[in-house]
Amino acid sequence: MSTAYDTDIAAWAEEQVALLRTGQWALLDIEHIAEEIGDMNISHRHQLAHRMAILIAHLLKWKYQPERRGSSWQHTIREQRERIAKLLRKMPSLQHLLDDPEWNEEVWADALSAVILQAGMTDLPKTCIWSLEQVLALDYLPS
Q1: Per-residue pLDDT tens digits for 124-141
Q2: What angle do CA 142, 110, 134 make, to 5 degrees?
Q3: What is the CA angle 29-30-33, rounded to 5?
Q4: What is the CA radius of gyration of the chain?
Q5: What is the pTM of this model?
Q6: What region, left, alpha or beta, does residue 100 occupy, with left being phi > 0 and alpha being psi -120 to 50 degrees?
Q7: pLDDT for 48-92, tens place per residue?
Q8: What torsion, rounded to 10 degrees, do the Cα atoms 49, 53, 54, 58 define?
Q9: The 3-state secondary structure of the chain, one letter per residue
């Protein structure tokens, strides 16, 4: 077992798992294990932000394009809410992000960019117009 991290990360990961399970601590690639765990946390944070931006973008389209409302948008809104809830159940430590004003500003900006790109809408609110409870409520749709 000596696959280099930079050569084949999948094989390296399998080897590291085997070393961990057999208690061969001295052979572990601690530096890269720490890097991968850090990257995993960043990835989960990005996933939450991405799902929130998709959700908010669809809520904006629902509110400002009533003539285009359909089951596809409803499905996307419900799916993102369910996946966000699942993500937060599995990783409750991410919950604090939802209360972070800077993080929320970035998510709102990403949602606005998506709506502008997808729907060509430009006259949109500069800050979030819904409470977190409304955004995440399974039965809420803006009128």
Answers
A1: 999 999 999 999 999 999
A2: 25
A3: 85
A4: 20
A5: 0.84
A6: beta
A7: 999 999 999 999 999 999 999 999 999 999 999 999 999 999 999
A8: 150
A9: CCCCCCCCHHHHHHHHHHHHHCCCHHHCCHHHHHHHHHHHHHHHHHHHHHHHHHHHHHHHHHHHCHHHCCHHHHHHHHHHHHHHHHHHHHCHHHHHHHHCHHHHHHHHHHHHHHHHHHHCCCCCCCCCCCCHHHHHCCCCCCC
How many CB atoms are located within 10 Å of the residue 85 CB?
12
Nearest to 68 by CA among 120, 135, 140, 133: 120
**123-128, long-range: CB < 8 A, 24+ apart:** 124/60, 124/64, 128/56, 128/104
- Amino acid in position 18: A
Q: Give the Å distances, CA to CA, from 28 to 8, 14, 43, 91, 108.
A: 16, 12, 23, 26, 41
For tokens 């944070």, the residue is 45
Within a 10 A sphere around the Cβ of 69, how many other Cβ atoms?
13
